[in-house]
Design brief:
- InterPro entries: Amino_oxidase, FAD/NAD-bd_sf.
- It holds the Pfam family Amino_oxidase.
- One of its GO terms (molecular function) is oxidoreductase activity.
- This is FAD-dependent oxidoreductase.
- The structure is a single chain.
- By secondary structure, this protein is an alpha/beta fold.
- It folds into two domains: about 140 residues, FAD/NAD(P)-binding domain, CATH 3.50.50.60; about 130 residues, Polyamine Oxidase, Chain A, domain 2 (Alpha-Beta Complex), CATH 3.90.660.
- About 30% of the residues lie in helices and about 30% in strands.
- It is globular and about 65 Å long.
- The N and C termini lie close together (about 10 Å).
- The structure holds flavin-adenine dinucleotide.
């Protein structure tokens, strides 16, 4: 049976594994946690989605995920929007949005498990190489061979793996340069915990213009199982303009700024005083554009495939999943 090695256990990698299914033996290596930017953490009985706030998928993708995840839950409150003056209004279209009581990363873990892939997390791929028509993947746990290699990593990591690859084809440099040319936006996430409930008619508030400091605020308690009753968690995401002009900010200062903006926007001075917070900087949060199509066909000539939101140029969960599924189908057809 052919061996496929997937580097990166985000939703794009999970899409690849799903589309391949049992047509090949699939090994996945993940540098950190399964889920990638669909990240969740647990603290004091709260489950907080710190990267992607929700999954938004089309009907086909939802059927696939529902088969793999028993606990997919729709977030049954709408998203509202705010303008430069801080005025709130109801948002225009409201497609269904999802997470799970265990956190949004559970969706990715379940997709891999359902596909029968073998996933090793906290195991970065340090080097890749190609010789005699076979890929070699080096991790601190050893060397693994595969007939097909999938880089389901962000463009930044893809570039690094290609630059250091033991692979003589000219295409390697071309591909590394292409990945290097993808711009990314940086985003900061601050989760604020309050020992009291916050009741509002919306789940999230989205900025109408990207120039504002806060791009997004979510009430994590709208997701079933995420926040105990009588408490609240607000997830405040600062957009690229703020993150780049505050690149040396301390986590406690970011939390203070997040609480000030939350109190302003939700018009409630009680929100100045949170009792704990979590902070995370996402250096490669959202790709600014994609690389173009020809690359996928050319990479396939070397039994190499790429998947991820950056391949589509759209920094959304559904785009990353679609990229992974399309890549997985292409590989299946070649096996
Ligand atoms: C703050 C934030 C908020 C967002 N909000 C939303 C939202 O609400 N809705 C939405 O649809 N989208 C949202 N997005 C975008 C969405 O999260 C991404 O588009 C999507 O998760 C990307 O998936 P991916 O599989 O392409 O990449 P990733 O999830 O980044 O997965 C790639 C994986 O590769 C791993 N990796 C890298 N290098 C190596 C290596 N050398 N060895 C092994 N593994 C490696 C990484 O650790 C990572 O886990 C948000 C993103 C951010 C950062």
């Amino acid at each position: 049976m052919d061996r496929v090695c997937i580097v990166g256990a985000g939703i794009a990698g999970a899409g690849v594994a799903q589309a391949i299914g049992d047509a090949a033996s699939v090994d996945v290596f993940e540098a950190a946690n399964v889920g990638g930017r669909m990240a969740s953490l647990e603290r004091a009985g709260c489950r907080i989605d710190t990267g992607a706030s929700y999954l938004e998928v089309d009907d086909d993708q939802r059927s696939l995920i529902e088969r793999a995840t028993t606990d997919l839950r729709e977030i049954d409150a709408p998203i509202w929007q705010f303008d430069a003056a801080g005025d709130l209004s109801e948002g225009p279209n409201q497609p269904p949005r999802y997470s799970t009581p265990d956190g949004i990363d559970r969706i990715v873990a379940d997709l891999f498990a359902d596909a029968g892939a073998t996933v090793t997390d906290h195991c970065p791929v340090e080097r890749i190489g190609r010789s005699a028509g076979c890929w070699r993947v080096e991790t601190r746990e050893g060397t693994h061979d595969a007939e097909q290699l999938v880089l389901a990593t962000p463009a930044t990591a893809t570039r690094s793996l290609l630059r250091s690859a033991d692979w003589t084809a000219d295409f390697r440099t071309y591909l590394a340069d292409l990945a290097d040319s993808i711009p990314y936006r940086t985003m900061d996430t601050v989760a604020l915990h309050y020992p009291f409930a916050i009741d509002r008619p919306y789940f999230g508030l989205v900025s109408l213009e990207s120039v504002y400091d806060v791009a997004w605020i979510a009430r994590e308690g709208c997701k079933r199982g995420h926040v105990p009753s009588g408490e609240a968690v607000l997830v405040v995401q600062f957009g690229p303009a703020w993150a780049t002009t505050h690149h040396t900010i301390r986590p406690d200062e970011a939390a203070r700024a997040a609480a000030d903006r939350a109190a302003d926007l939700l018009d409630d001075e009680e929100l100045f005083e949170f009792d704990w917070f979590e902070y995370q900087r996402w250096g490669s949060a959202i790709p600014g554009r994609g690389p173009g199509d020809s690359l996928l066909d050319r990479a396939a000539e070397f039994d190499l495939a790429l998947a991820g939101d950056w391949v589509t140029g759209i920094g959304r969960t559904r785009a990353a999943l679609e990229s992974g599924l399309a890549t997985g189908r292409r590989i299946s057809n070649r096996l």
